[in-house]
Amino acid sequence: MEREMQMLRALASMSFADTLEMAVILGEAYATVHRALSGLLADGIAARVNHGTVHLPTSGRWFLTAEGIDEAADQLGFAAPSEFVRAYPVSQQWLTLLLRRMDAVASVYRLAVALSPGHSSLRSRVEFHRRGRFDATITLHNGRSFGVVRQGLALRRRSLHDRLRAIAQYDPSLRPGTVLVLVPSPWEQRLTARLCERVHLYDCYVAEESRDALESENSHLWLERTWTYGDEYHTLHDVRSRCRSGRGWLMQQRGRRRASLPHPERMARSAPTFGLSPSEKRVLDLVTDHPMLPREHLGRWLGVSEGRVSQVMRSLVDTWGLIERHGRRGRVRYTLSDGGIRHVAHRDRAQLPAARETWSTALTTDHHGRRRHLGHRIDTWARQTRHADAVTWFLSELAAETLADDSSELLWTIPTERATRSVRRGEPVIAPDAVGELIAGDSRVPFYLECEHRARHPRGVRAKLRPYTRYYHWGELEDDHPPFPFTLFVVDSEDIEDTYVRTAAVMRSMTIPVLVSCRPVLERSGILGRSWRPLWAPASSRLRLSELRAYRWSPLYNVMHCDGDV
Q1: What is the pTM of this model?
Q2: What would the DSSP string read from start to end of 511-558?
Q3: What is the DSSP letter of 102?
Q4: Are 309 and 369 in contact (CB under 8 A)?
Q5: Please, what's the b/e burial string for 294-325 (b: 16 or more CB within 10 A of its CB; e: otherwise)?
Q6: Is residue 304's pLDDT more than 80?
Q7: Which of 250, 246, 196 is nearest to 222 (CA)?
Q8: pLDDT at 555
Q9: Mean pLDDT estimate for the chain
């Protein structure tokens, strides 16, 4: 009976944890927890639903059924189930919130597993937040506490930074001892760590949301930036040992006005987070990053057949209504529907009005009386369709080529909305069309992408290159994108490509790592092929991206030099 009461209490406190997570957080043996949960499943007290994310494998996640809530209320000594759902986060309101944020909830549970001892009944506690700056807090058996902040694709960088600034202003005795921040890419990781240093948010570690960062105790993936040592990468074991204990954490008070009895089974069946596979969630992320994505580019990006694209989109468009189709057969594009905008906004704790002003395809009228799309990214696409298609064509072709080449891998890319980088206050910014990192043969190639259709003459070319000369001569590019980023310009024709080369040849400052190519050459020779002309050496022949390993950037002299044969 005591074991059953313990499992009922655990299910009430940790809805949608899987068996391993529950065992480690409770400090119990996996077999013991599995046996107890199987018994509750057979009695109809608990249910299990499969869930996976882009970062984590699919697993069965447990929750109390309606019958289980009645049973738990009785066993734990509550006068009525309505009192039980007020005391534990299992009300309809709480389950709705957890289901909307389920992908983030899964990441927090996995992080708690990596931080917890997992034996000798040394129990940890995981608490999710309805509101406030933290997404969740993890408290270990010894009182050491960790506040988790997550940035999803729908959460703007400014919103994340506002949260971190507010956390930095908290009384240190009234917040978790250590702050852990999860971000979508290494680019955001470095920028966020730099912000934490500027706002004096100490004991803060930033990691890209990935399986290794969430599960591995011994991988140096958690970045801390300090004024003294610069960027330092730590393991989760180091983070746990460096967390200062003895701080009192002021537990959040759950709102008690509304605590309705839930219908857990029905809610789980109708939740997209459980109905979508990890591959379908990846497609949703691609469309979020690249609205109005052409169908053929999506297929190349995923490296799948036309039939598989149809299967995935049937689920996302017809079954769940998260994506909407635009255009006729042969010219189909995909973008977030209104339901999809709500889904990603709730998933990432973003403001729904701000999300609609980013992705909505609804038409509105501006202050000049002109018709425009409500979502600024959709409106930008409508004005710059050719440019947007050029960017997604390049990225999808690069993804397809790296999938077909065993020696290459496209590690990550992000669009221009998340890639803008200020150089200095009052000076121009670089706003590349995409930022990414590529492994090509033996070369690791961090890159900025510029698909340029307007700069066709020397004057325009100089104006386009000038912000990058400032950026490379600034001297901190290796902190942004180590070891140092190449900039890839893609233009329309070989004639325009020649204009770039001739213009660079007479610019004294054009000793920076910039390469240019044109779409006809890229279509003929491939992005990974011998297609790129280095502007720091205009007279040299075309290079492969895999040959860039022979070149080095000298930050002392601001020039490129060759270390070996190309």
Answers
A1: 0.94
A2: -SSEEEEEHHHHHHH-TTSS-BEETTSTTSPPB-GGGGGGEEEETTTT
A3: H
A4: no
A5: bbbbbbbbbebeeeebeebbebbbeebebbbe
A6: yes
A7: 196
A8: 76
A9: 92
10 Å Cβ neighbour count for 241? 10
In contact, 231 and 207? CB cutoff 8 Å: no
- Give the number of other Cβ atoms within 10 Å of residue 226's Cβ: 12
Q: Which residues contact 388 (CB under 8 A, 6 or more apart)?
A: 290, 292, 380, 381
Q: Which range, 86-95, 468-477, 501-510, has the best average confidence (pLDDT)?
A: 86-95
Contacts 24+ apart (CB under 8 A), 371-380: 375/291, 377/291, 377/417, 378/291, 378/292, 378/335
Q: In what order do the strands lie in the sheet with 333-336?
A: 293-294, 333-336, 323-326
3-state per-residue secondary structure call for 80-97: CHHHHHHHCCCCHHHHHH
Cα(437)–Cα(409) distance, integer angstroms: 9
State how far the Cα of 514 lies from the Cα of 499, in Å rounded to an integer: 14
DSSP structural state of residue 228: T
- pLDDT tens digits for 58-75? 999 999 999 999 999 999
Taking only the tens place, the pLDDT of each residue in 127-174 is 999 989 999 999 999 999 999 999 999 999 899 999 999 999 988 878
438: how many CB neighbours lie within 10 A of its CB? 25
pLDDT of 538 strictly over 90: no
DSSP assignment, residue 319? I
Overall average pLDDT of the 492-505 stretch? 94
Residues 151, 163 contacting (CB under 8 angstroms): no
Three-state DSSP at 73 gives helix
Residues facing residue 234 across a β-bridge: 222
Cα four-point dihedral sign 408, 150, 361, 285? positive
Interval 538-557 mean pLDDT: 87
Q: Are strands 429-430 and 230-234 parallel, antiparallel or unpaired?
A: unpaired
The distance of Cα 145 from the centroid of its chain, to the nearest Å, equals 24
Determine phi and psi for 19, rounding to 5 degrees. -60, -45
What's the CA gap between 503 and 507, in Å, rounded? Answer: 7
**564: three-class secondary structure by DSSP:** coil
Strands (DSSP E) along 338-388, which ranges?
363-365, 371-373
Cα Rg of the chain (Å, integer): 26
Return d(Cα 146, Cα 280) in angstroms, integer. Answer: 31
What integer is the mean pLDDT of 321-348?
96
Distance of alpha carbon 196 from alpha carbon 226, whole angstroms: 9
In DSSP notation, 250-302 reads -PPPPP-S--PPP-HHHHHHT-HHHHS-HHHHHHHHHHHHSSSEEHHHHHHHH
Q: Cα separation of 283 and 399, whole Å? A: 14
* Alpha carbon distance, N-terminus to C-terminus of the chain: 73
